[in-house]
Design brief:
Structural class: mainly beta
Number of domains: 2
Shape: elongated
CATH architecture of the largest domain: Beta Barrel
Strand order of the largest sheet: 1-2-3-6-5
CATH superfamily of the largest domain: Copper binding periplasmic protein CusF
CATH class of the largest domain: Mainly Beta
CATH topology of the largest domain: OB fold (Dihydrolipoamide Acetyltransferase, E2P)
Length: 243
């Protein structure tokens, strides 16, 4: 009993000495984090969710952010557009000045500007520059390209089934799945043998061969798009050496 009391006393002394250490651990107030100091400028990258030309506001769904707008990652950030705001349309290597109403919903945007923290709980974000890049939504794209193996071929109906493994954005919804394709009557089908192209017919294709194909998408029926191959390179299986 005496030994137990001595052990308990030792534990209490240890806890008393370590108390301040426990008290200083855990959640830290935001204003005590070195890099969480109030920012006066910001950079936000994302997609345009709303364009308000009446109140001169642009709403951005933030995917990349500087410290000043870090709390908006994954959420919507509303920025003010003022007369001095420079709005640019980016295409390739070219930039041209546009008005706010020319920014389209879904556009990829990069916004840099200033933060007014006069009211800390209600910061105001003002855009100094907006760079907008138009991004066509996958369900509006009318062309495609993919690479993957053939699963079946029907030369009579001019169709085939392939499993696209590497795709352009127009085929995002079918990547990795068995997908039917129409082969256009004038489609160019070829392989490469001995450093020269060799023309093939659809009837000569064999399931298991790998193809790189491109073509057009008919979205007349949005829920049932038709993919038509117009160009296709085929990798023929390597012949098995004779024993």
């Amino acid at each position: 009993m005496k030994k137990a009391l001595i052990a308990l006393a030792v534990v209490l002394v240890v806890l008393a000495c370590s108390g301040p250490a426990f008290a200083s651990s855990g959640v830290v107030a935001e204003n005590s984090i070195p890099w969480w100091t109030p920012a006066h400028s910001f950079t936000a990258v994302g997609n345009a969710q709303a364009v308000d030309t009446t109140n001169n506001r642009l709403v951005v769904r933030v995917t990349l952010a500087s410290a000043g707008v870090a709390t908006y990652l994954g959420n919507d950030l509303t920025v003010r557009i003022v007369p001095k705001t420079q709005i640019l349309r980016h295409r390739g290597r070219l930039y041209r000045t546009i008005a706010l109403d020319k920014v389209r919903l879904g556009d990829h945007v990069r916004v840099t500007g200033s933060i007014d923290i006069s009211v800390p709980a209600q910061p105001v974000f003002t855009a100094g520059r907006v760079i907008a890049t138009h991004v066509v939504q996958p369900d509006q794209i009318k062309w495609f390209a993919f690479r993957g193996p053939l699963k079946s071929i029907d030369a009579t109906d001019s169709t085939l089934v392939a499993r696209p493994l590497r795709v352009t954005r127009g085929l995002w919804d079918v990547i990795g799945t068995k997908t039917p394709f129409v082969v256009a009557p004038n489609a160019r089908i070829f392989t490469w043998t001995g450093g020269k192209p060799v023309v093939l017919t659809l009837a000569e294709l064999v399931p298991g061969e790998r193809v790189l194909a491109q073509g057009a998408i008919d979205r007349s029926v949005p829920t049932a798009p038709v993919f038509t191959i117009k160009w296709m390179r085929v990798w023929l299986p390597t012949p098995t050496p004779a024993s």
